[in-house]
Amino acid sequence: MIDGYILSIDCGTQSIRALMFDRLGSLIGKEKVEFEPYFSIHPGWAEQNPEIYWQGACTACMGLKEKLKEKWENIIGVVVTTQRDTGINVDRDGNVLRPAITWLDQRMAKCCEPLPIYDNIAFTTVGMQRAVEITRRKSKANWIKENQPEIWNNTYKYLLLSGYFNYKLTGKFIDSTGSQIGHLPFNYKKQSWPKSNSSYRWKVFGIEREKLSELVNPGTIIGEISKETSKITGIKEGVKVIASGSDKGCETLGVGCLDLEASSISFGTTATIQTTSSHYFEPIQFMPAYPSVIPGYFNPEVEIFRGYWMISWFKKEFAEKEMNEAKNKHVPPEELLNERLGEIPPGSHGLMLQPYWGPGLKMPDAKGSIIGFGDIHTRVHIYRAIIEGINYGLIDGMEKIESKSKTRISKIMVSGGGSQSDSICQITADMFNRPVYRGQTYEASGLGAAVNGFVGIGVYNSYREAVLNMVHYSKVFEPDLDSAKVYKSLYERVYKRVYPRLSGLYKEIQSITGYPEI
């Protein structure tokens, strides 16, 4: 058996990590470099200099090499997993032409030229004409073409962040099908670029075929660490670089979700619930099932945009006391807040949050709401209501997945920042009324990428074999039946009725204020 370690480079919204795993899934070492998630020169814009990402990766790798000098020499493969939907324009020599437009960016293109009439008729017939127009206007490629045509004309490749890292590591414009999640003309069902030039995807997203990367399946060896890259990362020249997948897809693999009877919940900046399927289906009609990190498989997903971002919002606006106390105690403020969750009963004494801080394509008028306030409520109630509200949204997503797959989800695996809290995991078990499994490492996306690396390098013959050997659980949270009954009643009798009752008012608010721009 091949012996050695896989190095996972995991680039998120606010930090990048260099993570070394062995073939049994143990995290041997970690180095983290933090950065500001974006800069904004106009309201709603969210851009980042791609060099920040790359320099962070080099710094993290060099730092980990210093920590693990002897083991570092035994790296046998490198994999990359990144945030989704962050686009980078480069010229023929790989030089960046403008700051990356990140997934948090809210700008809209004008798209004055209408789509062909036959496409518009087809979208109108199925009730998706408005959603398609919003998608088209959200395409950052369309915005660049309208506002910075010289940049677009000089663009040789329009890369996702994953493709940019692959280029920096190997000098090749190659990316994984498992990373193609964003405003791109990707055919999710066939997991490829559209073969027909007449496909509506080219017109909606506005990207020419020649500007896109070559695609390979996850687990494919795409190149080797070059001499120049070796000098600035510390990774040995000639080490294989293996195609992996997006951060959410790698998390799903990294928590061991391999079939429709399990689901992966990511308590991240965007909270998601995914499962793994051998066949394509859409939990929400016309919202695609994303490519899995397992070649030929799919990750049907429902997301809560700005999910656990709401925790950051809450800390900034309401938790100054805990922020100061945490600073003095040298602990994360979430640790102090989570200690107080047990003070509030299930249902937060009637306080309920609807987590539509960022409306989706199927509900473009939706806004967030908190209802049920009374004189008993404190900011800790609001904190618990945020966690419960995100979970209500994810339960709704689970039901959609179960309905389309015709399979009951029997267990839930969790990852992301919130999964570190016993209180949040227990609340989740109670609300879903299913056991919740927490993995042995918080770095689930890095672990999932490493699984891909070990399969790609030939240490394991299949993903199932790799998961059985590499994914382990540190704790299982069983639901409390009394709490589960309370949550079931609140979900069925209240939460599911909130949006239908308020949707008309949301439309009125948007028409009067013009916000959000749609």
Low-pLDDT parts are none
Give the CA-CA distance, first to last residue.
55 Å
Which structural class do the helices and strands define? alpha/beta
- Name the strands of the widest sheet in spatial order: 3-2-1-5-12-11
Q: If you compute it from the alpha carbons, what radius of gyration comes out, rounded to the nearest whole angstrom? A: 23 Å
Name the overall outline.
Answer: globular
Mean pLDDT: 93
Largest beta sheet, briefly? 6 strands, mixed
Strand content: 15-25%
Estimated helix fraction: 25-40%
Number of helices: 18
Q: Please provide the count of β strands.
A: 22
Describe this structure in words.
By secondary structure, the chain is of the alpha/beta class. The protein is 40% helix and 18% strand. The protein contains 18 helices and 22 strands. It has helices at residues 50-67, 69-72, 117-125, 129-138, 140-147, 149-153, 161-170, 200-205, 227-233, 247-254, 309-318, 320-329, 333-339, 379-405, 422-432, 444-457, 463-470, 481-513; strands at 5-11, 15-21, 27-34, 47-48, 75-82, 87-90, 100-101, 157-160, 174-176, 214-216, 221-224, 240-242, 262-267, 271-274, 290-291, 298-299, 301-304, 352-354, 369-371, 411-416, 436-439, 473-477. The strands form seven sheets. A six-stranded mixed beta sheet has the order 3-2-1-5-12-11, with helices on both faces. Strands 17-14-13-20-21-22 form a six-stranded mixed beta sheet, with helices on both faces. A two-stranded antiparallel sheet has the order 4-7. Strand 9 (174-176), helix 8 (200-205) and strand 10 form a beta-alpha-beta unit. Helix 11 packs antiparallel against helix 14 (379-405). The mean pLDDT is 93.
